[in-house]
UniProtKB/TrEMBL annotation:
This is aminodeoxychorismate synthase. Pathway: Cofactor biosynthesis; tetrahydrofolate biosynthesis; 4-aminobenzoate from chorismate: step 1/2. The keyword Membrane does not apply. InterPro entries: ADC_synthase (IPR005801), Anth_synth_I-like (IPR019999), Anth_synth_I_N (IPR006805), Chorismate_C (IPR015890), Class_I_gatase-like (IPR029062), GATASE (IPR017926), TrpG/PapA_dom (IPR006221). Its EC number is 2.6.1.85. It comes from the Eukaryota. Residues 428-479 form the Anthranilate synthase component I N-terminal domain. GO terms for molecular function: 4-amino-4-deoxychorismate synthase activity. It comes from Chloropicon primus. One of its GO terms (biological process) is 4-aminobenzoate biosynthetic process. Signal peptide: none annotated. It is an enzyme of class 2 (transferase).
Amino acid sequence: MGRSRACRVLLVDNYDSYTYNLYQMLSVVHVEGTSVEVDVMKNDAVPFSRLRPSIIEYDAIVLSPGPGTPECEQDVGVCRDILDHLVDVPILGVCLGHQALAHAYGAKVVKAPVPFHGRLSRVTTTCSSDDEVGRGSELFAGIPSDGGFDVVRYHSLVVDEASLPDCLLPLAWTSPDEESKGRRLLMAIMHRDYPHYGVQFHPESICTSHGATLLKNFVGMALKGVGTQARRSCLGLESGNGSEAVVPGVCRPSEGRVERGEPCARIHRGIADGGLWINALALKSEERIDAEKMFLDCCFGGGGEQGSQDTFWLDSSNLDYSGARFSYMGRRGGKFWRRIEYVLGDQSELLGTMKIGDTEGGEEVLTFRKEDGITFWDCMDGMVQETSKRMSDQGAHFICGGDGELGTLPSGWSLKNDGGAAEGDPLPFDFQCGFVGYIGYEMKAQCGGSMKHEASHPDSFFFFADQVIAIDHDDGTIYFLELSEHKLDGPSSWMKGALASMTGDSLAGVDPGSGGLPCDKNLKESAEWSRIHEEYVGDIGSCKEYLLDGDSYEICLTNRLKIEGEFQNALDYYRLLRQRNPAPYSAFLDFTSRAPDQKTGLTICCSSPERFLKLTRAGVLEAKPIKGTIRRGRTKDEDAEALNTLRCSGKDRAENLMIVDLLRNDLGRVSELGSVHVPKLMDVESYATVHQMVSTVRGQKAQGVTPVDCIRCAFPAGSMTGAPKIRTMQIIDDLEMESRGVYSGTIGYISCRDGCFDMNVVIRTAIFSGTGTIVGAGGAITIQSNAESEFDEIVVKAEVLVSTPSSRGQP
């Protein structure tokens, strides 16, 4: 008879950023028709005394990687108790889990000759036929022993083979080389009598060969081992139904979400489910659409006294980029328009405060205290879900021109759906009105990080846009979208006004000027950095100490240029920025308000090349992390050489791999089992001033996971933190000594139709306010980093934001 239930595995998370890669890989294992069910639990979720009665129901336990050392009780948590008390339970330790296993039985964990983070090594295993080692060889069954196999390593500590007690047997080693000073380093161990195994390398990494085979072998060995009933007898526990056991502290993808949409009523009070329609007016252009002219005419110039206040422009300014098809823009809108501002509290008593304003100047203030348990993410989740419920499921209603309702169309434009469009025809883009704005870096305090520094601007700022202009750059079509409680018979007054603005005098011909910021052009020696050259270089040294101690694999260290004084025209600045540094995820956001009791003067000019996360209508999640940057050459030959240097750079490839594995982990928390994959690994993309190494990670959103769950579980972007994310963010807080604010956060939209979203990573960005301008720049620090080169890199990244077009060369 076959097994009547799945093999249950408990995965103990040591606060690593690769744990859910193990979760995904283990969950798709099948051994002789038996599937695997995996539960994940933080190492400090519950004490072992509470865990013990239910943990015995598991067929196997995996101890994850993580920061720190097994000598620190806080770093390994309940792992030590598991190893001490569950001697008959099959256990596999990975990296820190492997070191914890060795330390528990008396071996020493020491610093490796050279830290190894995100790099590959060749590993060989023992081929002895000895029975004891034969059990260990079963762990490596089907994996090449002659010549070895390639593995990815993330560690600066290693188990000292010379200190192994008799009860621990070595199983695998690296090949000796110059970096290891001729030594072969221990990569795997097993206990002589107990089913306990450890591997120093990361079988779950995208670049480790045969990692899935090793995990399948471990599950197969666990299924052959002592049954749960026998283990119960050994521990004196009463019999129970293991398949129904509930382990305290087990994590879920929607962990922490409160099923409450209290703020939603403030936006859609009185609107029934299915009561909102998307009305669309589509115009076709004979020529390539000038998005800048559209914004100036319809959102800026068309606003009368409003100017650019409360406007947005999600700008795919790099039209040569394959993903830059659509741009979206709008301003203070109609009946359903809202302005949603969130400011974090201290998190000990006050979680945060949300202000919701409307077009009439009205404002409601919601305060969320610790005992309420409602975070920013809960508020956004509730608003997005409630909005989606109120949307008609019949698709867009296309407006046709008739009886001269549209008036005289601008020259070169025609009504795309003249003569009638099929009711409910799908729009070719995902953003169909909804939320547009930013989430600042400090919002990490409500998704695993801490509240260390207070930002000078709201921690999140969104508009609920009920009137949106969408531009299809490929098709040459512009769409005017408007939400209403019924299908419009003809174009609305807003649509007519926008069309009239297109035919009137345009601001697009007005020269934006030089557009440079009043900043010291010698950025390397500039005193306008938050931390001057010497301080930043010193922080890089501190980063390396953390890396050597095993606290992190990679630390994204950043700095800020602070330019005093109010800048007169941020829009003109952005017009030049999008010319000199066109990027697919650019944005212009102006949160200036005419209300005297609100903060004024916050304008964001962003030319980001990096996608944080996207969710399509088909439920596909996509991240495009960037790690690896080099300045473009002044000639074609220099430029080609620079591109090849980046592509072959071992340091940059290691940085990119670490973040790819981190993003696989983040998507693995919210994706269907087995769906996370990497269609592009370490590709090189070229922009106006730099070449960058970019990878693509995708997954299929799991059932029961909301769009906001997906954003929360991946925030902040791993490319702006490093890994492991939680511990590394703590290090960043200590070193940078100030908030990052909007920089390192995300800008984008969440559609009201079905929660689809597209969010960037806020880099290459200038943030304007009444007190001055802030430009952030940073880079990933690894053990291979050269301090001067790292400072040069942030200068390269900042230059495009403060220089004038004539001050830089072109390839």
